[in-house]
């Protein structure tokens, strides 16, 4: 009789499962590339004629239109019992698109390129997260996802630093930043190909059909809370625009974004380990409350010092929620449907970003530059309250 479980490899690197370590290193390289782009994208878009609403819509449309890919790739990876091919395709697509940003001369060009780059992210995200969960032994999923989040954010530190260095040497040369960002992007493909190993699954565990009743009701409750929170969680580009609006010079904008990622790197693994010990719900509630305070603060902010402090707190929020939420999703679904469940979760985030970005962009342009942040704070407070209710109602319930 076959045992219905994933075959977890025993090899480790620096105390972490081999796949967890190299998946983190892959994300480090890709995030270095994408954050080189992301840290200057708002300023680049404004320089080629985009409005704040267009800036928000470009991010929202690209994420939302590609989000269905996340659900499909997650289901497909469960169906065939493989994750690595989706990672190779997804990272490769993003890597090949990134250097073409430098040729853009209108916001529409950025929208098209951003769409295809996000398709790459959609293809790889759920299978990669499923690989991390399947490669983790014992009750250490919080630590593994925390490490992955930390490596993501290490890349998100190096990326803005490189952008700052290039802009300091070549003032206003956004296109050079965009061209050079392709180097770490292509390095990520090499790491996947050479060092990440497929996690074998028994064929009897492969998903053929997905039905709504296949997932625990707690999974759907959690997704509803995620939807409410994400409705107030628009693109980070508006935070960077706000920083510029209050007087932080364009050349220093990448460094402001670096503050957020630096704090997130320091706290991601400790918060992930803490979630393994005290429960995911408590960390998520904490993260939502911190987010509400941050966004209320951005609404009131009038000085560079205050904005920098809020970006530091923003890093704390990210460390307490991003990896922890993914770990919680894997707690609420059966392991043979992890890719599908994570795909649904990531799709919801992407789809909700479109109305969230549209609301925020319109509020920014039509009301004032504080309105979208007050709206985001309100949604976060509501989500925190619902998460408290979720925790009380399900306290003591055995994980799936």
Descriptive report:
The protein has 400 residues and is an all-alpha fold. It has one domain: MFS general substrate transporter like domains (Growth Hormone, Chain: A, Up-down Bundle), CATH 1.20.1250. The chain contains 14 helices and 2 strands; from the N terminus they run ββαααααααααααααα. It has a two-stranded antiparallel ribbon with strand order 1-2. A hairpin with a 2-residue loop joins β1 and β2. α2 runs antiparallel to α13 and α3 runs antiparallel to α4. The N terminus is likely disordered.
Features:
two-stranded antiparallel sheet, single chain, about 0% strand, Growth Hormone, Chain: A, disordered N terminus, about 400 residues, mainly alpha
Chain-wise SSE layout:
Blueprint: E1 12-13, E2 16-17, H1 18-47, H2 52-80, H3 84-97, H4 107-135, H5 141-169, H6 174-180, H7 182-195, H8 217-231, H9 237-245, H10 253-278, H11 280-300, H12 304-332, H13 338-367, H14 371-394
Antiparallel strand pairs: 1-2
What share of residues is helical? over 70%
Estimated radius of gyration: 20 Å
Uncertain residue ranges: 1-10
* Percent strand: under 5%
Order of helices and strands: EEHHHHHHHHHHHHHH
CATH architecture field: Up-down Bundle
Average pLDDT: 84
Largest sheet: 2 strands, antiparallel
* Approximate shape: globular
- Count of domains: 1
The helix tally amounts to: 14
* Content-based structural category: mainly alpha
Q: How many β strands by DSSP?
A: 2
Distance between the termini: 22 Å
- With strands numbered from the N-terminus, the spatial order across the biggest sheet is 1-2
CATH superfamily: MFS general substrate transporter like domains
What is CATH's topology name? Growth Hormone, Chain: A
Just give the CATH class.
Mainly Alpha
């Amino acid at each position: 009789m076959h045992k219905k479980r994933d075959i977890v490899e025993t090899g480790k690197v620096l105390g972490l499962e081999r796949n967890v370590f190299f998946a983190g290193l892959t994300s480090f390289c890709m995030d270095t590339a994408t954050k080189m782009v992301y840290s200057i994208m708002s300023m680049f878009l404004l320089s080629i004629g985009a409005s704040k609403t267009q800036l928000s819509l470009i991010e929202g449309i690209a994420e939302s239109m590609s989000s269905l890919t996340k659900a499909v790739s997650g289901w497909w990876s469960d169906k065939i019992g493989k994750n690595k091919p989706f990672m190779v395709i997804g990272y490769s697509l993003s890597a090949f698109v990134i250097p073409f940003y430098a040729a853009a001369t209108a916001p529409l060009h950025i929208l098209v390129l951003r769409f295809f780059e996000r398709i790459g992210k959609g293809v790889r995200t759920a299978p990669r997260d499923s690989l991390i969960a399947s490669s983790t032994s014992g009750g250490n999923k919080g630590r593994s996802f925390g490490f992955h989040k930390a490596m993501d954010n290490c890349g998100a530190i190096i990326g803005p630093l490189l952008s700052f260095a290039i802009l300091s040497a070549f003032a206003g040369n956004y296109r050079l930043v965009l061209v050079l960002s392709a180097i770490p992007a292509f390095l990520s493909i090499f790491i996947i190909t050479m060092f990440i190993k497929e996690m074998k699954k028994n064929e009897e565990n492969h998903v053929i059909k997905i039905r709504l009743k296949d997932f625990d009701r707690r999974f759907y409750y959690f997704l509803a809370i995620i939807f409410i929170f994400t409705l107030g969680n628009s693109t980070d580009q508006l935070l960077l625009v706000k920083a510029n609006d209050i007087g932080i010079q364009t050349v220093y904008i990448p460094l402001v974004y670096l503050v957020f990622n630096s704090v997130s790197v320091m706290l991601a693994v400790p918060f992930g380990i803490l979630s393994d010990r005290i429960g995911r719900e408590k960390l998520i509630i904490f993260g939502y409350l911190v987010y509400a305070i941050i966004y209320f603060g951005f609404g009131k902010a009038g000085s560079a010092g205050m904005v920098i402090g809020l970006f530091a707190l923003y890093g704390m929020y990210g460390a307490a929620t991003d990896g922890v939420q993914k770990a919680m999703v894997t707690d609420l679904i059966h392991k043979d449907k992890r890719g599908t469940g994570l795909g649904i979760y990531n799709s919801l985030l992407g789809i909700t970003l479109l109305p969230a970005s549209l609301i925020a962009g319109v509020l920014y342009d039509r009301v004032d530059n504080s309105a979208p942040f007050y709206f985001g704070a309100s949604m976060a407070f509501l989500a925190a309250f619902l998460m408290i209710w979720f925790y009380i109602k399900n306290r003591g319930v055995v994980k799936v």
